[in-house]
Write a structure and sequence with these properties.
Blueprint (H helix, E strand, L loop, with lengths): L6 H14 L13 E7 L5 H11 L2 E7 L2 H10 L6 E5 H9 L34 E3 L4 E8 L22 E3 L3 H11 L9 H15 L2 E4 L5 H5 L5 E4 L2 H7 L3 H4 E4 L5 E4 L1 E4 L7 H11 L2 H11 L7 H4 L12 H8 L4 E2 L5 H15 L1 H6 L1
Parallel strand pairs: 1-2, 1-3, 6-7, 6-8, 10-12
Antiparallel strand pairs: 3-11, 4-11, 5-8, 5-9, 5-10
Helix pairs in contact: 1-3, 2-11, 5-6, 6-14
Length: about 375
């Protein structure tokens, strides 16, 4: 659930900042019995939204997206006033900074009490959760490998440059994650905007690139499952575990000694929404354990809410999935997460374009 490259997204977000407040209250959606939602594809049960419609009489129009750039673009050019958005934690700081989010009335969302305490934490820019509500448990970007075919033991991100891995590596095309991890592996802050630090990170990535078989976009699960690659830098361990029980013993993950990225998603309400009360009602409804469980039954994953309240709505063997142990294990490691930063982003994108050559120029 990460963007591939940040530069264009930042430009769009700035446009949103300019447009949002003057347009408040003037969106195309004016019906009090209808709300518009932007949510991540492959995460949420459509039945859950239908249940909300049946219970409240409020129609829900859901637009599914797969990157934050699309979300930002729709906020500006989508032709509707959106009422609930599914937002990456790395971007919340920008949305708050530019005044794009409405404050959440916690009294209207009492079902937050069911969220696992360790998961009920705010992102940078909204640590006290004034503008957002967690909508998923944290996940991690790290190295995932095939236990049978990976030829070396991996402990550090730098190990991906080992010549024994030539032609066996897949990496997700997420600029911030790649450069952040390379910076961390080199002992720098993953938030560093120093050109010399990012240049060093780029040099490490250039060494790793020699071993890369596939730049996998949003997911490297298929490259691992079909045997094309034996190792990947990705966020796909939960996907693999949820795809098939055969993957439970086939794939492993690495608690990188250098540290690894933790990220999380949040519900938020744009300030220009005309239906804040209905938006808060929907968020609270989604957090009903019985309703939230519908999404986990369809797509799997570590439940955001406590087992004692949501477990009875899941399959009896749901908590046998190794992704549960993975979540506990990864939560106490050397974690990092950073907000999107204009200066760092500009430098990273410059180096990334050169690193990728024609491929990056075409995708950008």
């Amino acid at each position: 659930m990460k963007s591939k490259s940040f530069k264009r997204t930042i430009a769009v977000l700035l446009a949103v900042a300019v447009c949002a407040l003057p347009l408040a209250g003037c969106g195309a959606n004016s019906s009090k019995d209808e709300i518009n939602v932007i949510a991540w594809d492959g995460t949420w049960s459509e039945q859950m939204f239908k249940d909300f419609e049946a219970q409240t009489g409020i129609k829900v129009n859901v637009t599914f997206i797969d990157d934050t750039e699309t979300l930002a673009s729709k906020l500006v050019h989508g032709g509707s006033s959106y009422d609930v958005i599914d937002l990456e934690g790395a971007y919340i700081n920008l949305f708050v900074k530019y005044g794009l989010l409405a404050k959440i009335d916690d009294s209207k969302i009492p079902n937050q009490k069911y969220i696992v305490k360790a998961y009920n934490k705010g992102a940078p820019g909204d640590r006290k959760l004034k503008y957002s509500v967690p909508d998923m448990a944290p996940d991690y970007t790290t190295v995932v490998y095939n236990k049978e075919t990976c030829p070396i033991e991996i402990h550090s991100f730098k190990d991906l440059a080992n010549p024994k891995l030539k032609g066996q590596v897949a990496v997700i095309s997420a600029t911030g994650s790649l450069y952040g991890e390379a910076l961390k592996a080199l002992g720098c802050s993953p938030a560093s905007a120093k050109r010399k630090d990012i240049a060093r990170a780029n040099a490490l990535l250039a060494k790793i690139k020699k071993n890369v078989k596939a730049f996998a976009g949003e997911s490297a699960a298929s490259q691992l499952e079909n045997g094309e690659c034996s190792v990947a830098y990705c966020w796909d361990y939960p996907v693999l575990c949820n795809d098939s029980k055969a993957n439970w013993n086939k794939f492993g993950y690495v608690k990188l000694s250098d540290g690894y990225e933790q990220y999380q998603q949040y519900w938020a309400i744009p300030k220009r929404s005309q239906h804040k009360e209905a938006a808060e009602k929907l968020i609270n409804f989604i957090l009903e354990p019985k309703e939230l469980a519908k999404s986990y039954r369809e797509y799997g994953g570590v439940p955001l809410e406590r087992r004692d309240v949501i477990g009875k709505y899941l399959k009896s063997d749901y908590y046998s999935n190794p992704v549960m142990t993975y979540a506990e294990d990864m939560a106490d490691g050397n974690l990092w997460n950073v907000s999107v930063n204009d200066k760092q982003t500009e430098i990273m994108d410059e180096y990334y374009t050169n690193l990728m050559g024609d491929k990056a120029k075409k995708s950008n």
